[in-house]
From TrEMBL:
It comes from Microvirga mediterraneensis. This is Nucleoside hydrolase. GO terms for biological process: purine nucleoside catabolic process. InterPro entries: Inosine/uridine_hydrolase_dom (IPR001910), IUNH (IPR023186), Ribo_hydro-like (IPR036452). SUPFAM superfamilies: Nucleoside hydrolase. Residues 9-294 form the Inosine/uridine-preferring nucleoside hydrolase domain. Keywords: Glycosidase, Hydrolase. It comes from the Bacteria. GO terms for cellular component: cytosol. One of its GO terms (molecular function) is purine nucleosidase activity.
């Protein structure tokens, strides 16, 4: 089989327990070459999300990957309160080392623009795991660079089901709906992985036990992270593994059902903020609307156990 060159990616993230799982999955995947990690406020404040990104990279021994601090607040409105389900440290209290490398002095958006202008057009993908503030700011401030993005794969939104912060709103888009509107309406190549899909990817305690038994450090850490993501000590199924679905889609798109939908983003009241509407006058977006959840979990386990 011919060697396939790893795809260059940037991970834009607000770690976050499920962000952490997604980052560790990307680190274990030879299909990806991670150019850098950009951080954004979301699950918790920017200082903590940035520190958590550095801690994850230190744990994995990947101090070669730079971290760039991004937006501390949404484009136009106050930021959300931190999500309690991720714990005070944003990462479930799981033991991680201190960052081995300080965040870079350049801002996330400045660095991302320079990277996209340096690399051949279409060769850098962005995996967006949090609010879309950094990407929106890039679109607004440096459109020539933004046009060179290969593809954005973003965890966000909900199409046919109920939201998780409002009747029709999902947290990442709700946290900065103006940014979501900028990115969705930009016409850039975009794949959305919404709650309709991520709610179908939940781990069992048997799954985490298998990861722990593998003896592989990244697999064991993911097992600990998922354990912190169960609702109670007796619950047999974890909360949805939202953000790893971005990496899983990039690794195995055949496990997902895609629909081409025309979408609009609500920038209205708090209750409706970030809600997606399918509308003929909206912008064409590829949306994952189905997934083989058990096969996705198998891929997660195999990738982590092979690293």
């Amino acid at each position: 089989m011919p060697h396939v060159k790893p795809r260059k990616i940037v991970i834009d993230t607000d770690p976050g327990i499920d962000d952490a799982i997604g980052i560790l999955l990307a680190l274990a995947s030879p299909e990806f070459s991670i150019a850098g990690v950009t951080t954004v406020a979301g699950n918790i404040g920017i200082e903590t999300t940035t520190r958590n990104a550095g801690r994850l990279l230190a744990f994995a021994g990947r101090e070669d990957i730079p971290v760039f601090k991004g937006a501390a607040a949404p484009l136009l409105r106050p930021g959300p309160e931190p999500l309690n389900l991720h714990g005070k440290d944003g990462i479930g209290g799981v033991g991680l080392p201190a960052p081995a490398r300080q965040p870079e002095s350049r801002s996330a958006v400045e660095w991302l623009g320079a990277l996209l202008l340096k690399e051949p057009a279409g060769t850098v993908d962005i995996f967006a795991l949090g609010p879309l503030t950094n990407i929106a700011r890039l679109v607004l401030d440096n459109p020539d660079a933004a046009k060179r993005i290969g593809r954005i794969i973003a965890m966000g939104g909900v199409i046919y089901e109920a939201g998780n912060v409002g009747p029709r709103s999902e947290f990442n888009l709700w946290a900065d709906p103006e940014a979501a509107d900028v990115v969705v309406s930009s016409g850039l190549p975009l794949v959305l992985v919404p709650l309709d899909v991520t709610r179908r990817v939940r781990a069992t305690r048997e799954f985490t036990a298998t990861l722990s038994a593998s003896g592989k450090p990244l697999a064991s850490m993911v097992a600990d992270l998922i354990e912190s993501y169960f609702e109670t000590s007796t619950h047999q199924e974890s909360r949805p593994l939202h953000d790893p679905c971005v990496m899983l889609f990039a690794l195995a798109p055949d496990l997902f059902r895609l629909e081409d939908l025309r979408l609009k983003v609500s920038t209205g009241s708090t209750e409706q903020a970030g809600a997606l509407t399918v509308d003929e006058s909206g912008t064409p977006v590829q949306v994952a609307t189905g997934v083989d959840g058990s096969s996705a979990l198998d891929l997660l386990a195999r990738t982590l156990a092979s690293f």
